[in-house]
Structure formats: structure tokens, C-alpha cells
Amino acid sequence: MSDAYFQRLHLANVAASLQCCPYQIVDARDSSVFHGWSSVKSQSQGTGGSGHVPGSVLFSHSWICARATDSIGDGRAQARAQQRADMAQVRGKALVLVGTGNRCAVCSEDIGVSTAVWLERYLKTDIKKIYLASSSACNGGVGCANGGRDQVEKLSHNVQYGLSTLPDCDIFVTVDWLHARLLRDGDGADVCVLHVGWDDESEFISEHIPSSCYVDLNAWEDPDTRNLRCPESFAILAASPCDPRPDHGCVVLYDRDVGLAAARAGLALWSLGFANVKILSGGMRAWAKSGFDLESLENTILHQEQIEVTGNADNSDVFVDMNFIRELTACQHPDHVLVSCCSWLEYVGCVSGYDYIMERGRIPTARWALSGSGKDDLCHWHDDLGIATDWNHLAELWRLAGIDRTKHVVLYCGTGWRCSAVWFYIRALGYRHVSVYDGGWFEWSSDRTNKRAQGIPTASWFAALKDLLPKSLLDAEPPS
Fold first, then answer.
1. β-pairing, 408-412 with 434-437?
2. Prediction pTM value
């Protein structure tokens, strides 16, 4: 199927041409550019090209490109497509694809056309028509991340809105940004790169991002509760060239998976006063996929050794304890809101989510506004490659659930990993007063005096949210 199959629609005529038809602008570029992560490509182009047209939704071609072998008869592929369509709310609408005119560096396909073909394949009966946005010029460079820059700028101008980015988009950085930073600084003199693992030091030694140092998260957690040790006992080594002191430039963390371990260690550092903590979007897999070199040297291994924390950032409220949660659930203060980062099946009490947690259910009064499918992922926030999905829709769901930026938001999950990641996600969305109950469901359910809740919530906040959640999610059956 070629681009000739799809009708072209000039950007200047989008609103006029579709005024009688509900339509949705779909952005096919990388999520890093869509959201505004720190990127060499976007920085070299100024502010234009980094960000998105307000109201547009993300269907990143790079996500589709990674699934080139999916078969239309593959039930999992179909379900994945349907869920993304539900989340993006594109059903029953005409779609206008921006991002055309540039070719993917991996598959050499036009990113807009390829995305249109994918949508046509999986959602043909659910959408009215697909248009390819066109402009008089589109010379934004090669590769998924940069495709359609000129189109996005022109469309933004035509609808009289500026480009939109996340309020605190610099929390996340791309692999091209880190690569350029390391090249510029030689050995990364003003950036500390930490490879976060879990008892996999040998894997780090065999392959890692150049100049990075290894952090064994196992040493930072209590072996019995899996909770982070108190800040006074965090073990960090001050060693050159890797010196993660609060006043030593920025700290960039990554892992081999979807970023939960990196966020876990990042939250620990943040609580110690490290104000310039960043998460590498996509982690080591994105680095390797981009073709950047890996090294196999035995760099510094961060062992247990105290350093004096000299940062002036007041991050003492990052963690709250069980007594705080007891008071919160008893008083239901209107300026505080407790949020579960567990899966839906964990939240309603169908499963505990862990083989070492026997009790099922949730902490009373906790709200749920999408997270993931199990203890090892947050699939509504990132795809299976660890790359961010469209967070604007998630932010709207949180708002409808009464989890807004003016409140003190307290997050919990099973043992703290998932809520550590969500802490960074919603910080990027502009939430400023966010804490983590690190004890989580593991600690709460272990105390028989604590109350617990199960089942589908009946509160008004869920009634406002329910109709917007994917039906496939709410109908999910617990594993046999």
C-alpha cells in the first residue's frame, strides 16, 4: 500500500475541510520529540520541532516499526492495536497524520505513510478516513525522531496555538542527547551515568554505556521488605570519574529493561538532595538500537560507602510512612490523594501480584488511574520497549479521577518499584507535591490491624473515569 492510497490534505485546510466531520490529528514522530525530552535533534532546531500540536495524539512510528513482523491474524497484535486506539480515542473519527515526508532510519519507510498503513490494517472498521498532512516544504531531516517538524510547526501556526510540551520535560533525556554530551565532555566530566542493576554485575562488565558506573539496587533495599533503606544509610561511593554528588552536574540513570530500576535508584538519589536527576528514555536497549557503541570495561562499581550529602534541595518529603497513610485514610483530607500504581487486577483484589504477598486488595480510599498489567511493567505509561506512550491522555484521566496538580499526591504499589517510576512520570506532567509510600501493599497488608478494600470502587471519582477506560482492561480475567 503506497502513499497514493491515502488522500493528501494541506495543513492550511485541515480545520475548514473537516469542519463537519470529527477528526483527530495523529503525530507519527518519536515520543521523545512529541513530549519534548532533551534531545540533540530538537535542541539543534531551536524550540520548533520539539513538542506537539495541542490536542494531537501520539502513534509513534518507531513503536510500529519494531512490530514489522506482527501478523494481522495475530490476536495479540490486534489486541495491542485496539487498546492503543481506545487510549487515543480515535474511533469514529477521521485521522490526519503528521510526520510524513521523512524516512525512518531503521526501515527506510516514510513514517507518516507507514503509520497510516498500520492504522488502516488494524482499525479500518473503527475510523472514518485517513488523511496524510502535506505542506509546501518538509525538510526536517532523516529519522523517526525528526520527521514532520515543518508540518507540526505549520499546523500549530494554522490553528493558532503554540507547540505544547510536558511542563517538566527535562527529567527525561534521549540517547542522542547523552551520546552528544559524553562526546562533548570526553569522559562525561559534568554528567554521572549510572547503570542500575540487580545482582547482575557480570552483565554490566560485559556490556554497558561508555563511562557509566554500576549500581546494585539490591544493596540499596532491605532484604526482608524490599523497601529502600533510610536515606542516612544509602550506600554511594564518591569516585572519579563517576561522582554522584548533589553539586556535580547531572546524574543520568538507565537500566537494561523498561526503566523501573533506574527510576527506583533515581528516587533514592532525589531524596538525598540530588536535584538534577534524569532518566534515560528507553535505557540501554534504546542506546543499542541507535547503533551507539557499548563498552566492556570494568568501570567503577558503586559499593557501600557513606558520603556526606551537601545538596541544598529540600526533598525530605519524598517518602511517607505507614502512620502517615493511616492518618490519610482515616481523615480523607481533601488536599491529599492516595493513588495505587498496581495493576487493575491487584487493585480490585483478584491477585496480589507477588508470589511472596499472600493478601489481596488495596489500601482504603486509594484511587486508580491506569498503571500496568503486573509488577514488572507500567504498560499504560510506556510501551514494551520502555518508550513513553502519549501521557496527555493519561493526565486527563488523572484529572477526571480527582488526582490534580494542586493536591499532595501519595503513590504506592507492591514494594515501591512501580510508584518510583510513576513519581518521575507525573513530575514531568507538572505535579510538584508527590510522595511515595515505600512500604506499599507489602507492608500494609502484613499488619492485620490495617483495613483493606476489594472490588470495583463505587465512589464518584471512578464513575467519572469508567467510561473512558478500555473495556478490555476492566473485563480482564485473573490468571489461572
1. parallel
2. 0.85
Rounded CA gap, 103 and 471, in Å? Answer: 35
What DSSP character marks residue 332? -
The model's pLDDT over 176-188, given as tens digits with 9 standing for 90+, comes to 889 988 887 655 5
User: How many Cα atoms are found within 13 Å in the side-chain-facing hemisphere of 202?
Assistant: 0
Q: Note whether 275 and 231 are within 8 A (CB).
A: no
State residue 391 phi and psi, 5-degree precision: -85, -15
Diameter of the chain by CA atoms? 68
Ordered DSSP codes for 90-146: -TTSEEEEE-TT-B-TTT--BHHHHHHHHHHHHHTTT-SEEEEEE-S-----SSGGG
Torsion of CA 63, 206, 417, 268, to 10 degrees: -120
Cell triple for residue 41?
535533534
386, three cell numbers: 520502555
pLDDT digits (tens, 9 = 90+) for 424-477: 999 999 999 999 999 999 999 999 999 999 999 989 999 888 877 777 677 766
- Fill in the DSSP letter of residue 362: B
Q: CB of 402 within 8 A of CB of 337?
A: yes
What CA–CA distance (Å, rounded) separates 74 from 30? 25
* Matching residue, cell 502513534: 59
